[in-house]
Amino acid sequence: MARPASPPFRCTECGWTSLKWAGRCGECQRWGTVVDVTSTLVSARGTAAVSVGADRVARPITEVEATSVASWPSGIGEFDRVLGGGIVPGAAILLSGEPGVGKSTLLLEVASRAAATGARVLYVTAEESASQVRLRAERTNALHPNLYLAAEVDLAVILGQIDQVDPQLVIVDSVQTVSSSTIDGISGGTSQVREVASTLIRVSKDRNLPVLLVGHVTKDGTIAGPRLLEHLVDVVCQFEGDRQTALRFIRAHKNRFGPTDEVGCFEMTGDGIAEVADPSGLFMSRTGAPVSGTCITVAMEGRRALPVEVQALIVASSAPQPRRVVNGVDSSRVAMLLAVLERRAGIKLGDADVYVSTVGGIKLTEPGADLAIALALASASRDVSFPHTMAAVGEISLAGEIRPVSSAKQRASEARRLGFSHLVDSEATHLREALRRAFRIASSPRDRELDAAF
């Protein structure tokens, strides 16, 4: 027999093809994504051209009318900041996050604020009962007559609820738990998620109705379901946060109506979720007197400059292998900075236990925090305390060079606004020079004498 012209099986995630079916993709290693595309190819080859009406004829782009898309505020400023000004009519927004981070609480607050403006809001819960959502709404003071609640898992019933309520906003929690009877497979499967999402998005576009979808994430942090889900929606938001802290961040990884570098800051409280418009004091300690081993840096979270305190502790070790414990910073970055401090500045910490952490549970991933980490380590090793009015921003290379960072003017402006009168940055071209400047800024005469060592 002649072999087929093209492999009949293909992965819906990455496009990997195979001559035989496999439960797991050989390229992206995802389960249940390899499907038979033979019937699809046959139907595609048989598609015939149809005549196009006068109203659908392609026109030059210069003749197409430009219409502005007006958004309406959700009532939560930090959420609107990430969306680019508010919720756009007809937009499909996907909000993902780990279990328990507060996605449902945030969207219930959005629904309540929208209902308070007079808009009818349909909140579809497919994971909880209606009474459970009612109890949470009472606790967070989110009850409103214009907020309609439906506990449904069938897509057809949800579409009927939309027809009956005729809402101005629809929230579905979550898209992985809704299923369609016209598609084989269990809820959460690739085919079911694709059908549910595409149907809801089609309704959103036809009715000019904004739809907010909650999406589950896998254990590696990616959105569960087919990658097509992220391509279909207009906005993809990630709700992040540590369960041990009350702070939450929301970021937009995709946004057709606004920027993708904005960050919204929230705080989980006993009464629900509260937005934090100015989180400048959340990541610094409140000690009265300066403490050795601490240094402030100004980190960028999207377009927002945030002061973050880095703390370091150096303890003599009796173990043959000293410990290196970090929290909130990259362990490999700290190991590199320890090597640079020893080789370029003469600070030897190879026989000591080193602990580095940030305040408030924030994670520093940008290289602009290198200088603050190095100064905190130097401060802890010399038992020297820097004043509260000093901050440090800069990237450190393996040669000990202080390199400039992005958004330097915004960081400096924010540092001055918050009262940091001394800023150690890339004007100090080398790590030794930065250490000399930092110890010269120190208030006591003993501290000023120590800068001669560098």
From TrEMBL:
Gene3D superfamilies: 3.30.230.10, P-loop containing nucleotide triphosphate hydrolases. A motif (RadA KNRFG motif) lies at residues 254-258. One of its GO terms (molecular function) is damaged DNA binding. ATP binds at G97, E98, P99, G100, V101, G102, K103, S104. The keyword Metal-binding applies. Residues 68-217 form the RecA family profile domain. Pfam families: AAA_25 (PF13481), ChlI (PF13541), Zn_ribbon_LapB (PF18073). It comes from the Bacteria. The middle region has homology to RecA with ATPase motifs including the RadA KNRFG motif, while the C-terminus is homologous to Lon protease. Plays a role in repairing double-strand DNA breaks, probably involving stabilizing or processing branched DNA or blocked replication forks. This is DNA repair protein RadA. It comes from Frigoribacterium faeni.
